[in-house]
């Protein structure tokens, strides 16, 4: 079987809700990272077999195949196709997996995988306002339980016995690590500046420096009167996009390009849709079995910080070294632009692997409905 390698990976800075990126259409924001990839690598966009693009809320600005409109917004030849993928929060991670699979299978030679979400312009939950996505059979199966990620996070915290203080300490540490990463230039090699009103936007703006568990203790619970989940230990609503250039190692050689990583293994798994956010645990077990690697072989983990109990429960169950978990901070600190987060996390994973000379990295995302992707990449 052919290999699939990542030649380059870029992302926009993550904009906070109604912040710097809120005035930019999703297609135009997507076009910025597509353009950056071809500018940085010299790849002719006319040779791209497909653009696989994650996006969750596919209405309004993000409707009617945003992947295709991203290609057109970038000014690329009309023969270059685009497809939009929705696996909830893991949409652009699924795009990466699907792109790698297509290259490995010999159907494509050059693919760009990524995603976008402009949550300022297309609000969270907007797609559900016009109907019930689950249907009577699903609701009957789960006794009419009102599927809700925040309530699922409360159930996870209760099951693992996480206190409000533990969750708030994890959240504060996310801000601290993200601040250190930004100040240390950890993201400088892959963040694409976005020009807004004549100025270049270059830094994730959700970060709240000086956040402490004591400060977070004053926030009101969001989903349960005596609950432990609140705005400060949950991911931020955000805007952003990311993209990766994927091809065979042979094609990279033909083009004079040096790959930065190899797609090693991927897996997707389902879990209980009531707690909803536990999918990364079985997905990680599955991808490790498939890869032949152990948890100790992995040098860095990116586990999306949808809510603080998610990576904490994952770490408790997998036994992963907590020092290797989200070392650059996560979505609690800098935001979670749904359809773009999988690609954005992959750029962060690659950055850490290159900076610390790590061979293997693992990324996993919890997803609405109780599914999860897990992907292992190998630095070259």
From TrEMBL:
<dbReference type="InterPro" id="IPR002155">
    <property type="entry name" value="Thiolase"/>
</dbReference>
<feature type="active site" description="Acyl-thioester intermediate">
    <location>
        <position position="89"/>
    </location>
</feature>
<dbReference type="Pfam" id="PF02803">
    <property type="entry name" value="Thiolase_C"/>
</dbReference>
<keyword id="KW-0012">Acyltransferase</keyword>
<dbReference type="Pfam" id="PF00108">
    <property type="entry name" value="Thiolase_N"/>
</dbReference>
<dbReference type="InterPro" id="IPR020617">
    <property type="entry name" value="Thiolase_C"/>
</dbReference>
<feature type="domain" description="Thiolase C-terminal">
    <location>
        <begin position="258"/>
        <end position="379"/>
    </location>
</feature>
<dbReference type="InterPro" id="IPR016039">
    <property type="entry name" value="Thiolase-like"/>
</dbReference>
<feature type="active site" description="Proton acceptor">
    <location>
        <position position="366"/>
    </location>
</feature>
<dbReference type="InterPro" id="IPR020616">
    <property type="entry name" value="Thiolase_N"/>
</dbReference>
<dbReference type="GO" id="GO:0003988">
    <property type="term" value="F:acetyl-CoA C-acyltransferase activity"/>
</dbReference>
<feature type="active site" description="Proton acceptor">
    <location>
        <position position="336"/>
    </location>
</feature>
<dbReference type="InterPro" id="IPR020613">
    <property type="entry name" value="Thiolase_CS"/>
</dbReference>
<keyword id="KW-0808">Transferase</keyword>
<feature type="domain" description="Thiolase N-terminal">
    <location>
        <begin position="5"/>
        <end position="248"/>
    </location>
</feature>
<comment type="similarity">
    <text>Belongs to the thiolase-like superfamily. Thiolase family.</text>
</comment>
<protein>
    <submittedName>
        <fullName>Thiolase family protein</fullName>
    </submittedName>
</protein>
């Amino acid at each position: 079987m052919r290999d699939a390698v990542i030649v380059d990976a870029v992302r926009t800075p993550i904009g906070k809700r109604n912040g710097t990126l809120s005035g930019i259409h999703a297609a135009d924001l997507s076009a910025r990272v597509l353009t950056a990839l071809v500018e940085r690598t010299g790849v002719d966009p006319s040779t791209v077999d497909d653009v696989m693009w994650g996006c969750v809320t596919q209405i309004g600005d993000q409707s009617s195949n945003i992947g295709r409109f991203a290609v057109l917004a970038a000014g690329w030849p009309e023969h270059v196709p685009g497809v939009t993928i929705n696996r909830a929060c893991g949409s652009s991670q699924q795009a990466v997996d699907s792109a790698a699979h297509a290259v490995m299978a010999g159907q494509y030679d050059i693919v760009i995988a990524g995603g976008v979400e402009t949550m300022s312009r297309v609000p969270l939950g907007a797609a559900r306002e016009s109907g019930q996505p689950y249907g009577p059979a699903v609701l009957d199966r789960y006794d009419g339980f009102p599927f809700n990620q925040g309530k699922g996070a409360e159930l996870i915290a209760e099951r693992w016995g996480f206190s409000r203080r533990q969750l708030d300490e994890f959240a504060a540490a996310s801000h601290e690590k993200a601040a250190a990463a930004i100040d240390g230039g950890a993201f400088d090699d892959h963040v694409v500046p976005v020009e807004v009103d004549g100025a270049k936007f270059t830094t994730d703006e959700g970060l709240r420096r000086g956040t402490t568990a004591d400060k977070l203790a004053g926030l009101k619970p969001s989903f349960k009167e005596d609950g432990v989940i609140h705005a400060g230990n949950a991911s931020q609503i955000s805007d952003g996009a990311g993209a990766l250039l994927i091809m065979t190692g042979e094609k990279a050689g033909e083009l004079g390009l040096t790959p930065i990583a190899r797609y090693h293994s991927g897996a997707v798994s389902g879990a209980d849709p009531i707690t909803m956010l536990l999918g990364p645990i079985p997905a990680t077990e599955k991808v490790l079995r498939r890869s032949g690697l152990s948890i100790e072989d992995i040098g860095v983990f990116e586990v999306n910080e949808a809510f603080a109990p998610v990576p904490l429960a994952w770490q408790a169950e997998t036994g992963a070294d907590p020092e290797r978990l989200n070392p650059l901070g996560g979505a609690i600190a800098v935001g979670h632009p749904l359809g773009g987060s999988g690609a954005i996390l992959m750029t962060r994973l690659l950055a850490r692997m290159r900076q610390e000379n790590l061979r293997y990295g693992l990324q996993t995302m919890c997803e609405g409905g109780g599914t999860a992707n897990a992907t292992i990449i190998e630095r070259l």
